[in-house]
Amino acid sequence: MAGGPMAAGGGVGANAPKSKLSAILMVSFAAFAGILYGYDTGTISGVTAMQDWLALFGHQVPVSTDHPYGLAISSSRQSLVTSILSAGTFCGSLTGAPVADWVGRQRGVFVAIVIFCFGVAMQTGCHTFALFVVGRVIAGFGVGLVSTLIPMYLSECSPKWIRGAVVTGYQWAITIGILLANVINNATQHRQDHSAWRIPTAVQLIWAFILAVGMLFLPESPRFWIKAGREDKAAKSLARLTNSDVSDPEVQLELEDIKAALKEEQELGETGYLDCFKRTPNKILFRTLTGIGLQAWQQLTGVNFIFYYGTSFFQSAGINNPFLASVATGIVNVFMTIPGMYGVEHYGRRNLLIWGAAWMCFCEFLVGIVGVTISVDNTAGHKALIALICLYIAGFASTWGPIAWVVIGEIFPLAIRAKAMSLSVASNWLWNFALSFATPYLVNPGPGNANLGVKVFFLWGSTCFCCTVFAFFCIPETKGLSLEQVDLLYLNSSVLGSSKYREELLAQDVHIADVAKHTDDRASEEKV
Ligand code: BGC
């Protein structure tokens, strides 16, 4: 069976939740990296709508509701500058797995920060569109590295009983990053010089600096040290992460667990990316495709339409203060992630993903209907439109936003975990890229464009319907199970039967040592 004791604990100090608050807070700091991700996502929407930026990189057009400054940027430039970040992040996320194994998880984050800062500096100081675009690719590469390294670091270093919450903390940081970007864009938008967009761009260096200083005080993942053959360093890391002494029996036990898991992994032989696509009794192929599919459908909910193009969309819909409307969606995104953190452990992953997608589908169709019905100067209609979009974002933030990250952290067996996770994260960025690239062509008027405008919400409504179907048929209920039990669930149960089988596992309190026996007993029960 893939996995092992480490997989069951899945992290540090998997036993009792003792009073290890300071150690947990220390690990949780790594979730701060989500700010880099979120801020980068959120900032471009406002920057590309700023007068000075448009004057520098756009062209002149007649003044209209869509173009209040008499300046515009072509669909091709808008889609390129927005989506190019995700091209960099796609490559960065795939590079994350080897970097994590070569230089380490924590030290890999420093590599990411250096690359990121280089890209940000280039965007801040540039005078040409080409340099701005290249700067975004480079910064994106750094963000992509971080988006694979950080969830891996968090799940390897946090205790099992709080791992889900720590990982949703990462999503929370993403949402805070998006909001910060909206707020800072809003504050600088009226500046008449380059500082209007240079300030929000350069501010990213501050987040990178805070992350770098904080990461200096965090230990490297003990799992990395064991893999690198440095048991002494692994023991020191573990002692820090559990707030105890190297000789503490708990530290020694955990070390043995990690070593045993590694041995088991090595006995299975060196795994490559192709192993993620093998048909096995514990459904490796299905699980990899589920992770890749889940992250793709998360993007296909259409959420980044709001975070990337929200400001221009609100502007063209005739809404008075499009920057404020963007801030409103950012606030809803941050605050509605909190019930998601609670809900994931109370209502389950499967239920929330199904109902969340159904809710988003409902809201998006309503946005489409209201949008095509009202006129551009209908203020009440505009308020209804913003309210519906906020309700839709609330649905995303409390379900698909955090849960997509939680699920990819727990459905893979240890042997292929890093690779399958990086493939899933890369799928997120690939779809992020494809959708952000295609959106201006779909939405904007003008030759060669589909001119869908607000009708694009019918498209997102339909994709959200598909998300409901996907969650129903592909996401098993894994709430409260150890990673080892998740493996057993895939081995012995179907997705549709997962809720019942999960209860059976929890009721019988099946542990790692019982796994083979439990599977045999079930097989003989089925024969009878
Ligand atoms: C998604 C991002 C999105 C963000 C919004 C994340 O989970 O992967 O693409 O911008 O949520 O909060």
UniProtKB/TrEMBL annotation:
Recorded hits in InterPro entries, A to Z, give: MFS_dom (IPR020846), MFS_sugar_transport-like (IPR005828), MFS_Sugar_Transporters (IPR050360), MFS_trans_sf (IPR036259), Sugar/inositol_transpt (IPR003663), Sugar_transporter_CS (IPR005829)
Subcellular location(s): the record lists: Membrane
| Membrane topology note | Multi-pass membrane protein
Q: Which SUPFAM superfamilies match?
A: MFS general substrate transporter (SSF103473)
Can you quote a single GO CC term?
membrane
Signal sequence extent: none
Q: Does the keyword Amino-acid biosynthesis apply?
A: no
What reaction(s) does this enzyme catalyze?
A: myo-inositol(out) + H(+)(out) = myo-inositol(in) + H(+)(in)
The organism's superkingdom is given as Eukaryota
Q: Where are the transmembrane segments?
A: 21-39, 109-131, 137-154, 161-184, 196-218, 322-340, 352-374, 386-408, 420-443, 455-475
Positions of the Major facilitator superfamily (MFS) profile domain: 26-479
Q: Which NCBIfam families match?
A: SP (TIGR00879)
Protein name per the record = Major facilitator superfamily (MFS) profile domain-containing protein
Give the species. Steccherinum ochraceum
